[in-house]
Amino acid sequence: MIDFDVALAAPVALRARVRAQSGWLGLLGHSGVGKSTLLRALAGLNPAAHRLRVEDRAVTPAALARRVSLVSQTPALIDHWTVARHVRRVARHHQSGDRSSNLAGELIGDLGIDGLRHLYPPQLSGGQRRRVALALALLRRPRLLLLDEPFSALDGDSRHRLYPKLQALTRRLGCDVVLVAHQIEDIARLCDQVAILEPDGVSYCGALLPGLRRYQGQASPCSVLLGEALSGQAETGLLPVAFGARTLWVRTPRLPPAGTPVRLLVHADDVALGAAELDGVSLMNQLPARITALTPQDSGVLVECLCERQSIQARITARSQARLGLRAGGRVVLLFKASAVSLLTEF
Prior knowledge:
There is one protein chain. The chain has two domains: 2-218, P-loop containing nucleotide triphosphate hydrolases (Rossmann fold), CATH 3.40.50.300; 222-343, CATH 2.40.50.100. The chain has nine helices and 20 strands. It has helices spanning 35-42, 61-67, 83-94, 97-110, 126-139, 156-173, 184-190, 208-214, 318-324, and strands spanning 2-8, 14-20, 24-28, 49-54, 57-58, 68-71, 144-148, 176-180, 193-198, 201-207, 222-229, 238-243, 246-251, 261-267, 272-274, 285-297, 300-307, 310-316, 331-336, 341-343. The strands form four sheets. A six-stranded mixed beta sheet has the order 6-7-8-3-9-10, with helices on both faces. The radius of gyration is 22 Å and the shape is globular.
């Protein structure tokens, strides 16, 4: 269970009460609302915290520091220590014997830092520093792992390789995770629950999909869809996905076995709207839908649609809304390329 109640007076006034199931919890909120400050308080690094309760018990910052690991945006590594010395020091302090050695070796291999042992922190890239910090944090065997933008310095391929390894490691070590990530894809890929932090507290804590829909006004609008993989076409890199009674097409080099439940992401800006399905076009995804809401935004109009009992969003201009005569309850066709769909599921 991820269960905490934090009140802060500085550096920002903040109250956050969160109770969620065990696993991965994504922490959402606009810039400056206090996400990083909250993580530091949960790690026992904020002496200004005047209320700290975990699992309904009052705790001190020192007690939190013993059970929580934080990987921050700027990992705290000692410049004149090699990576190997960092690992030895943490292993000796928090573990003992073969158990520590085995875990250290596993972390070094899984997180891809074996070739970095002889290097010093100033010689590491941003992504390498993040991976070293992750290894050190997990080597402490924490009950709660706090990740503050852990993937921001990694390229797309490195991120995709790291996701399943990190999930497997946290499951094996039995630690829950709170993740703050700038890219909504990271939250959608890794988390099953989200909490939304507002200036006056946590406005939502619950399941991923309704949480992301609720957060759309503060983030790049997108839709997370659930389906089931069908037989892929390796030669073309196309994956058909059963989406209710329809088929969605995804362009991806990673083809899961047929029958695998998959999670997909589509950005609202990649979805076009039409009055009817089109012939003679390259768009592979054309889905009839019903409009459930239209929300004016500074950058246009956010159109929420229901298709096969799932919500899909599109963002269009006010001119397009007027030209198509769109209204709540009206019918429309959603149009988007196979390459506009991201496969979030790891397998």
